Amino acid sequence: MRLMMRGNTWHLRRRVPARFAAVESRREVWVSLKTDSRRQAARKATAVWESLVAAWEAQLAGRSDDGTARLDAARAIAASHGLTYKPIRDVEDLPLEELLARVEVLQRRDGTANAVTAPAVLGTIEVPSVTVSEALREYWTLTSDRVRDKSADQKRRWENPRKKAVRNFIDVVGDKPVAELTRADFLDFRSWWLERLAEETLTPNSANKDLIHLSDVLKTVDELKGFDLNLPLQKLMLKEGDKKERVPFSDAWVRDRLLAQDALSGLNPEARAILVGMINTGYLTCSLW
């Protein structure tokens, strides 16, 4: 690594490794370290070189056939230029000054445009083709923090409703790429639930649980993977109506069945005390632990 003085400013001068020839046309780079102090330049040079290498590595990854790898690489490339990756629809809405700043990043010193960097800076990377079933697999990884302290049984009971919701959705609309899901797909799923409610002894709450869990899976993957899909999941919930009140046990039934002599003789003293306490106070067993 060589430090060279140009005018009153130190520059880093270094040959580009051959493995990056596919993404960097220059044989060597000159990078201003923006200081006239050799000591400061020496301190900054290593970090500057490492950032260059990271950007080239990201550009190589961006040539991958793996859509997720390309998107991750685009974020890294944008970050190496001090930018945040944004999809093209958001780039188009940027203030003119910010848009021009992105265009200037693409301008090489020889006046040519950096075509390798352009997709990352202008947001033209295609969203990875992740199907609904693949999104569920991604979801387990992205939400591992939610089950970290759960027992195996608790984890199973947490996962099963989400698996069911995704399975039901796929049965109705197919295992489509998430990026291709439309409002019509979600409305079809809602209509399917309405038909089930009319035919079976189910409540709207059953449908709403599916809609909530499906929405959680897809939104979580969309947001945490940075797909920016704006999925049309709004206003799908079903009206639940008035909840049916449970008819209480009559005083006579409690007295003659539960409090009758020897009615609870099959229970040990601790279990009998808990049951009597529940009868008299209404507390749940989960309140005891």
UniProtKB/TrEMBL annotation:
Pfam families: DUF6538, Int_N. This is Integrase. GO terms for molecular function: DNA binding. InterPro entries: CB, DNA_brk_join_enz, DUF6538, Int_N, Integrase_recombinase_N. Residues 130-222 form the Core-binding (CB) domain. It comes from the Bacteria. The lineage of its organism: Bacteria, Pseudomonadati, Pseudomonadota, Alphaproteobacteria, Rhodobacterales. One of its GO terms (biological process) is DNA integration. Keywords: DNA integration, DNA-binding. It comes from Roseivivax isoporae LMG 25204.
